Predict the structure.
Amino acid sequence: MNTQDDQITILIVDDEQSIREGSARILSRMGCNILKAANGEEGLDILTREIVEILLLDLKMPGIDGMEVLRRVKEKYPHILVIIMTGFATVETAIEAMKQGAYDFIPKPFEPDHIRLVVNRAREKLRLTREAEKLAQERKRTLLDLGTEKSRVRTIIEALPNGIIVTNAMGQVVLMNPAFNLQMDIKHSIPTGGPLKDYITDKGLHDFILEISQGKVSDSEKIYTHEFKMSGDKYLLARGRVVVGEDQEILGAIIIFVNITAMKLLDQIKSEFVAKVSHELRSPLSTIHEQLAVVLGEMAEEAISEKLKYLLNRAKEKTEGLISLIGDLLDLSRIEAGATSQEIRPIPLESLLKSIVDFLSTKANKKKQTLVMEPLPEHPLPMISADPMALESIFGNLITNAINYTPESGSISVEIFDETNSLCVKVKDTGYGIHEKHQQRIFERFFRVKDENTRYITGTGLGLPIVKGLVDSLGGTITIDSELGKGTTFIVVLPLDQSNGQDNKGV
């Protein structure tokens, strides 16, 4: 419990003891009351007994992970400022955490000055929040007090490090702070009261704010986000919500701008590192794989024991798996770099699917499976403008997955048909199926469902994330319909006009 008005309580939740103890030493010297937890369950239990103002939260922990802890904290304790502690491998998740309401993040490993800076910023935010709450309580006082309150609130808003603008229902800017001018690179003074286009040149951001201002959103209580790029490789995240009056009328919107350039830079460094390491490893691994194949092919049966043959085959399988992993990592790097559409041209998708089915039929036959292409519609299907390599990767991965996760004597079917301004492809199997609790995570990198049926199936956990990235780059959607023990159907919908997907691939 807090003993002083100016003392705050910080809870550190991290499964690494060195991080917990080191952070505690640094922050205790700043006059903070420190609590520690080794996992998410322990941290949530502490929150039921203690008053906590700031939560330092690790994303990757056994049991309940950081994202789930964040969700529960924002639901039950919205006043707590959550600071994410993350490494290179979870930068994307850190960005997602910011979108879900996290206050800030600290990349691991961090220096003492870095954690002091972020925590001091959070303490200042708490101080300003408390001041704003006090001002709100004074609204019922005299007109003189009310005028003073408005002045103080404006002073607080103008002192905030993040950019803020408030619009009315017509999309006119009625309030903005100096940080907004700085983030938007507005060099000259512009008075409030003008339309959005006078302050914002990015069309996507303009439409995003206008839609919220006019209440054209599904949920007026929800916080909406929009990520965009400024000049000079500066990235900002806009977080906005509708302003509703006492009679539930739409008054406008409030938008807060957060600079996420550092996170984007870390993400770029991570991608470049993966690409560099992958290129360096692929050549020696390919050589080892070929040499093992030569040894197994040239040695006479009587010259090699069953045990040695087993070991060599296992080594060959493992190198083949590593080569596949490297290929998937390079594919992901290309997707992140926006290099997924190198040769856009009209493609008869039904012919491409037929060739993939024919090619993979040999793999299906080895498992005594039936792999068929459903009859085409009677009318000719329109062609789709896309990169054929991207389409081959999408449907090659989906059909291969269906073969791998369907037992012997099962069946896989591929169906294509046209809908309004789009082509729809269904890849259906009679395989093991995916439990409902896992269906929301199957497009996450390295996530694999492991149970008695799938534990011996080799894979990288990157195939479906690659598929999702490519479908998104084409402006399409991918959904799943699965029932445990009965099979899975993946539905890919690709628009016939690819312009939307291509325009946004670098954002």
User: Anything to note?
Assistant: Residues 9-130 form a domain with the Rossmann fold fold (CATH 3.40.50.2300).
